[in-house]
Amino acid sequence: MKFLKFKNEKYEEQLKRIPHNFAAAHDEEKNESTLTIYGIIGDSWWDDSTSAADVDMALKEAGSNDLVVHLNSPGGDAFDGIAIYNRFKNHEGKVKIYVDGWACSAASVIALAADELIMGAGSMMMIHEASNIMWGTKNDFRKQAELLEKLEDGIIDIYMMKANVEREEIQAMVDNETWFSANEAVEIGFATSTATSSTMEDNEEITQLKTQMQVLQNELNQLKNTEPKNPSTVKQNRAVRIF
């Protein structure tokens, strides 16, 4: 069963423009593996999406390395997204995820597996109701509705592990399809920082270090100025003055 459609389809053409790219590189010296997940989440006959099996294989190759993940996805198959989330959550090393563009639908679930989630400048996150395309009898539709409700409850459970608001508020955001800017994702607790704030923090740390170094240098200079003169130098100076 695939959950590839968005409730609000006015973004569909934009979402299709995110090209598929799945790549994994392993740096054994740094004990770090870098994964790129761009495009639709799920399995495909045409190799134009990233599946849970793809990520599973990459993580087996990564071993216990820390992970750096670059994510830009419109979402896709909910169950693949959940499987990737759990795979990241159970990974032995630290998981740092950068949202380079969009983390929508199933990709928003993947993003929340991060120990550290950094929203890139201008990036966005979107959460919405689970959806499906089907045909069948009225009983088939009832069963599908029940399944979607259970699936949605599980996804909201994942959101609530990070969210700093009540479950009812997240439920309303899911029902109404809600988009978050980078700063809003941080405010609600989904992300830990934005690329802009991270840069500012780095600059502040550098400024503080420079200030501390300058203070130490000033203290050293003061110590030099207050050091007693060498006795031999004093005698020589006196001798010079006598003659």
Observed structural traits:
single chain, 243 residues, alpha/beta, 2-enoyl-CoA Hydratase, Chain A, domain 1, 8-stranded mixed sheet, elongated, disordered C terminus
Question: What would you say this structure looks like, in words?
Answer:
This protein has helices at residues 12-16, 52-62, 78-89, 106-111, 138-160, 167-175, 182-187, 195-226, 231-242, and strands spanning 21-27, 32-38, 66-73, 95-104, 116-119, 124-127, 178-181, 193-194. Strands 1, 2, 3, 4, 5, 6, 7 and 8 form an 8-stranded mixed beta sheet that branches. The chain is 48% helix and 19% strand. A hairpin with a 4-residue loop joins strand 1 and strand 2 (32-38). Residues 1-9 and 233-243 have low confidence and may be disordered. The protein has 2 domains: 9-191, 2-enoyl-CoA Hydratase, Chain A, domain 1, CATH 3.90.226; 204-242. With 243 residues, the protein is an alpha/beta fold.
